[in-house]
């Protein structure tokens, strides 16, 4: 598929996409190279590999990589692929080691990726193997942002903070509420969903519109429900307060550099009905610290969904952070982490873990609602005719604005598809092989155009 054909698949100015972007095998191969080979990909949380020799086994796109803490405290990211015949070197999910030894013929690598020893080296290679040339392939760029470790294969990519742009402001609201930062609580939930990675990433980027309908049954169970006032005192007898978003009240959608977020304003920490109990009480108690660090708007932003392009998503309140690892055009492997403030007491971390799993674990009531949609759309796309249509992505077209209340970036009302349009524009810019300078310029031009429209 050439660049003109790729450009014809997305019209971010008029709000249409062609379904081939979710189903075409050739495009998927190109994505592995041009999206997953060039963007900053989340790999692990610092708290998962605190000591030298600690490692976490994960993926960049479909490429298996090891994230390894070095003796000097730095982090290196290397292909989990033996240089001899390509065997997967390490099969453990995580752990601590002095070396990685290949299970096929026994080549052993130091934690910095250098090839350390080769069985029968003298007899088999007769002194002719230059071990210094056969170390593990390393990601040239590794950076952390407030506890999250990312890597990038592309030496020409902008640094991580530039890549994040205004998204850093939103990410801070998740990671920087309290002194000491965050940590991962419990293990990583992993499961497969039969859908294209962009359905999941785009929904978390942009789609608040699905919530009142897709999650209607969960809303009926959980709200209206007796709630507390912002100061924690109970509402009067029989008084109830529905969550702001269920009432369709005002909120904000943000779009920038392919990233996106949508959230509602509420002065009531309990308005995020998915959490409740000890978790709500904790957010209420720690609100003053969060406000002092982040300001009122971000401190109050307890409910909202977010995607950092391409595949890192998170939800405030339920504290779920997830990566949509691509597994072919019609499949993803979902990896889900529960994130808690390090300073939270153990019983709060335990409560967070439970409320997180209840809503967004593999059998979570909201998780199930969401993935059902993506699976069904993907199934429909097996049809020939189904793949010839245009999808409508026009919500809120022309109503984008820049706010003056400190919320950065291009914004719209919560029920909009601005962030989806920005997400697919960034996808096209990457997929047509532009340089990073061209990509950043195209992103800025897109932002100006949607504001001027
Ligand atoms: S494939 Fe690893 S030692 Fe042969
Ligand atoms: Fe949802």
From TrEMBL:
Lineage, broadest ranks: Bacteria, Pseudomonadati, Pseudomonadota, Alphaproteobacteria, Sphingomonadales
KW NAD (keyword) present: yes
UniProt KW GTP-binding keyword: no
Keywords: 2Fe-2S, Aromatic hydrocarbons catabolism, Dioxygenase, Iron, Iron-sulfur, Metal-binding, NAD, Oxidoreductase, Plasmid
SUPFAM superfamilies in alphabetical order: Bet v1-like, ISP domain
NCBIfam families for the chain: 3PPDioc_HcaE (NF042946)
Organism: Novosphingobium humi
Similarity field: Belongs to the bacterial ring-hydroxylating dioxygenase alpha subunit family.
Domain of life: Bacteria
Molecular function in Gene Ontology: dioxygenase activity
Positions of the Rieske domain: 41-151
InterPro entries: 3PPDioc_HcaE, ARHD_Rieske_2Fe_2S, RHO_NdoB-like_C, Rieske_2Fe-2S, Rieske_2Fe-2S_sf, Ring_hydroxy_dOase_asu_C_dom, Rng_hydr_dOase-A
PROSITE patterns with a match to the protein in the record: RIESKE, RING_HYDROXYL_ALPHA
Name of the molecule in the record: Aromatic ring-hydroxylating dioxygenase subunit alpha
Signal peptide: none
């Amino acid at each position: 598929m050439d660049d003109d054909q790729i450009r014809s698949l997305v019209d971010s100015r008029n709000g249409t996409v062609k379904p081939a972007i979710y189903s075409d095998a050739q495009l998927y191969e190109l994505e592995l190279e041009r999206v997953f080979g060039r963007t900053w990909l989340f790999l692990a949380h610092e708290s998962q590999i605190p000591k030298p020799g600690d490692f976490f086994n994960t993926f960049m796109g479909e490429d298996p990589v090891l994230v390894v803490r070095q003796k000097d405290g730095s982090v290196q990211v290397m292909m989990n692929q033996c240089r001899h015949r390509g065997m997967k070197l390490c099969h453990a999910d995580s752990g601590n080691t002095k070396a990685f030894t290949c299970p096929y013929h026994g080549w052993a690598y130091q934690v910095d990726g250098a090839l350390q020893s080769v069985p029968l080296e003298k007899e088999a290679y007769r002194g002719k193997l230059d071990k210094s040339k056969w170390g593990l392939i390393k990601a040239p760029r590794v950076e952390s942002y407030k506890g999250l470790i990312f890597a990038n294969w592309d030496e020409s990519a902008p640094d991580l903070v530039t890549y994040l742009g205004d998204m850093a402001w939103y990410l801070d609201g998740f990671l920087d509420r309290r002194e000491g930062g965050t940590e991962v609580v419990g293990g990583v939930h992993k499961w497969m969903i039969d859908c294209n990675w962009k359905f999941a990433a785009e929904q978390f980027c942009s789609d608040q519109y699905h919530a009142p309908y897709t999650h209607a049954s969960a809303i009926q169970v959980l709200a209206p429900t007796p709630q507390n006032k912002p100061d924690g005192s109970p509402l009067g007898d029989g008084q109830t307060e529905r969550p702001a978003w269920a009432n369709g009240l005002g909120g904000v959608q943000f779009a920038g550099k392919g990233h996106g977020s949508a959230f509602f304003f509420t002065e009531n920490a309990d308005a995020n009905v998915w959490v409740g109990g000890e978790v709500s009480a904790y957010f209420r108690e720690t609100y003053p610290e969060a406000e002092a660090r982040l300001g009122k708007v971000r401190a109050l932003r307890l409910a909202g969904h977010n995607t950092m392009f391409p595949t890192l998503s998170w939800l405030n309140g339920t504290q779920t952070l997830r990566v949509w690892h691509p597994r072919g055009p019609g499949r993803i492997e979902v990896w889900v982490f529960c994130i808690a403030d390090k300073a939270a007491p153990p019983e709060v971390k335990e409560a967070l873990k439970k409320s997180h799993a209840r809503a967004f674990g593999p059998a979570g009531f909201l998780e199930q609602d969401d993935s059902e949609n993506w699976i069904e759309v993907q199934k429909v796309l097996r049809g020939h005719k189904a793949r010839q249509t245009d999808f409508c992505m026009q919500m809120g077209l022309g109503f984008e604005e820049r706010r003056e209340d400190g919320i950065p970036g291009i914004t719209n009302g919560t029920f909009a598809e601005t962030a989806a349009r920005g997400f697919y524009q960034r996808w096209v810019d990457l997929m047509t092989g532009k340089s990073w300078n061209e990509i950043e310029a195209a992103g800025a031009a897109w932002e100006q155009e949607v504001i001027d429209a």
